[in-house]
Fold:
Amino acid sequence: MVLDPGADPECRAIWRQLHGRLRRHLTEVASGPHGPRDRKIFELAVLEGWSSREIARGLPLSLSPAGIDTVVSRLRRRLRNRGLML
Structure:
């Protein structure tokens, strides 16, 4: 879900709407003590296109790349249960 830098204004507007909708749902499904951490991981992986290894190295987390994958998978499943396919 990374936006193409050369996208036209209409595509950019649609992307911003979808991005906002996703963030609202993500806030609801990633709550609890690790909610902010999990949302950041998901956004980097899905919206920004970072690999699990890049996230594990780039953030001060105590998670392995496999742990990052688990967080992303869990949140994808929760979002799918709400009708969002990512």
In short: The CA atoms of residues 21 and 84 lie 10 Å apart. The longest helix spans residues 9-29.
